[in-house]
Design brief:
The complex is a heterodimer of chains A (about 375) and B (about 130).
Chain A: E1 5-12, H1 23-38, E2 47-50, H2 61-69, E3 75-78, H3 85-98, E4 105-112, H4 119-127, H5 142-157, H6 161-175, H7 189-193, E5 197-199, E6 202-203, E7 212-221, H8 222-225, E8 233-242, H9 258-269, E9 278-280, H10 286-295, H11 304-308, H12 326-330, H13 339-350, E10 363-370, E11 375-382
Parallel strand pairs in A: 2-3, 2-4, 9-10
Antiparallel strand pairs in A: 1-7, 1-8, 4-7, 5-6, 8-11, 10-11
Helix pairs in contact in A: 1-2, 6-10
Chain B: H1 14-21, E1 26-30, E2 35-37, E3 52-56, E4 60-69, E5 81-88, E6 93-98, E7 111-120, E8 123-130
Antiparallel strand pairs in B: 1-2, 1-3, 4-5, 4-7, 5-6, 7-8
Classes of the chains: A alpha/beta (about 375), B mainly beta (about 130).
Chain lengths: ~375, ~130
């Protein structure tokens, strides 16, 4: 499958606080935008993959989106593995094309956690990821679940809160170069350290944003991609890993199934971590990035904290990471969060990124996860096959 | 007055909650692969056997990780409170609270012992205290 499929179109809706459109409307806008961007017509799209919305759930989501736009796809499905959905959907779309189920598939996701949900409702929906009988009663919030991972990493490797804060500072340094980002004012490690405590050791600036927004991409064969106007992003490798669902079932809090998904993706691509020159990792909370850096082989075990202090991931650094500002600073509309890692990677490959354009970035490692470090999907994208 | 999130026992999990009410921490033991599991299931997640029996656990364990929650999930929970993952000596891990402690004194690896608190309705849940207190 290496190099056989490519992302050929992308669109992002307005992000941040977007009260004027519902999640369904944002999703539809993203689909239409991505198809236009690819230089295709709606009639050329024969597959649609979406993810349900929290704020406006629809029982048969993808079918409803298709109906809204007058699409009559022959392949239509909703995918849901939490934050990992985005890249899992890319893998499923590629497999569907390989199996002859469709030629050109749009993957679209949108949600409005900010404008279409009350804060109370958002808290309840979020914490419902915990086990209803054996976790939820103890009143853990989603940051609290991730704080358990942070604390375990600190205890095992001596990782510090300042090192985790570097992840947020790096993200913001990129967001300050992105006009679209929800939070752009530069921050320091001290700002993160002195921000409001949420669930020790996590402070509010260790936590991703709560946003509205959506994005879509178009996936088709590499053969068809070569006939289209823009530079595509070729899928060189992918992998998934699902180790558990509830954090109490995690066999090792400091090491996730990203190890498995990453190894599969690298094997398929025929590449090693040293070949990667751009990272788009899942930064729902700062410590998750440290675990991913280690699980994906970018850093040795226990060394991700020190790696962040080299500032290699910031603008001008050796290994640019989350160049749009990530979910910590660009936007995080829930499950669609990692869609923006896909659209950003394609924008970088095309050279569309202005002040935040990375020179010579041609091989990107993308990773997303769902649950509480539970479900993992890794993607390696290349500017060339 | 807002109430804490209270579990609704299922037939499979009922012996666990019955145990809590009588001051026993009960967990399932697989007679086939001779290991404990948590949470309660209709089969053993290790080997698939349905030969499960309920045993009363020691109630002792160590803190695998913890967090001090500063912003509660709802007003029913008074901050700060400690949510922890506890490794029982029987080899299973569960989530609970560490109670009756200065939250700043909680550490990974500390020994803890179970005790039970009324939660809501007629449900009682296990929480843990530091052993040396």
């Amino acid at each position: 499958m290496r190099g056989k499929y490519a992302i050929v179109g992308k669109a992002e809706t307005a992000v941040g606080v977007v009260p004027d459109y519902s999640p369904t409307e944002l999703c539809v806008q993203a689909v239409a935008g991505a198809v236009r961007d690819a230089g295709l017509t709606m009639g050329q799209v024969d597959g649609l993959l979406t993810c349900n919305s929290f704020a406006e759930p629809i029982m048969y989501h993808a079918e409803a989106i298709a109906e809204y736009m007058g699409l009559k796809p022959r392949y239509c499905a909703s995918v849901n593995t939490g934050g990992g959905t985005t890249f899992a959907a890319v893998q499923q779309a590629a497999a569907a094309i390989e199996a002859g189920m469709a030629h050109t598939i749009v993957i679209a996701m949108a949600d409005s956690l900010r404008s279409f949900m009350t804060r109370e409702r958002a808290m309840i929906v979020q914490s419902s990821s915990g086990h209803p009988l054996f976790e939820q009663p103890y009143g853990a919030t989603v940051p609290a679940y991730y704080a358990l991972i942070a604390r375990a990493h600190m205890d095992r490797y001596g990782t510090t809160e300042e090192q985790m804060a570097e992840v947020a500072v790096s993200a913001r340094s990129w967001a300050s170069l992105n006009e679209k980002a929800q939070m752009r004012e530069p921050i320091t490690v001290d700002d993160v350290m002195s921000s409001r405590p949420i669930a020790d050791p996590l402070k509010v600036l260790d936590c991703s944003l709560v946003s509205d927004g959506g994005a879509a991409i178009v996936l088709t064969s590499a053969e068809r991609a070569r006939d289209l106007a823009h530079q595509p992003a070729y899928i060189l490798g992918y992998g998934e890993g699902h180790a558990y669902e509830h954090i109490m079932q995690s066999p090792d809090l400091t090491c996730s199934a990203a190890t498995q998904s990453g190894a599969q993706a690298f094997a398929m691509a025929g590449l090693e971590p040293k070949d990667i020159n751009m990272l788009q990792l899942y930064d729902c909370f700062t410590p998750t990035v440290l675990v991913q850096l280690e699980d994906l082989g970018i850093c040795e075990r226990g060394e991700a904290g020190a790696f962040m202090q080299t500032h290699d991931t910031r603008p001008g650094g050796r290994l640019p990471m989350n160049t749009h500002g990530g979910m910590l600073s660009c936007c995080h509309p829930g499950n669609p969060g990692a869609m923006f890692a896909l659209t950003e990677t394609l924008a970088q490959f095309r050279g569309e990124c202005g002040a935040r354009q990375v020179e010579h970035a041609d091989t990107a490692l993308l990773h997303a996860l769902g649950g509480i470090m539970s479900s993992h999907a890794t993607l390696i994208l290349g500017r060339e096959v | 007055m807002m109430e804490k999130i209270t579990p609704i026992p299922t037939p499979t999990s009922q012996p666990y909650f019955d145990g809590c009410r009588t001051g026993e921490l009960r967990i399932q033991f697989c007679e086939h692969c001779e290991s404990y599991q948590f949470y309660p299931r209709v089969l053993c997640a290790g080997c698939g056997s349905e030969s499960l029996e309920w045993r009363t656990a020691s109630g002792r364990g160590t803190i695998a990780s913890f967090t001090i929650v500063r912003r509660a999930v709802s007003k029913a929970y008074e901050v700060p409170y400690v949510v922890a993952l506890i490794d029982l000596v029987e080899g299973v891990r569960l989530m609970s609270h560490i109670v009756d402690v200065d939250v700043e004194h909680v550490r990974v690896g500390q020994s803890v012992t179970v005790h039970f608190e009324p939660w809501g309705g007629d449900v009682t849940l296990p929480v843990f205290r530091l052993l040396d207190q």
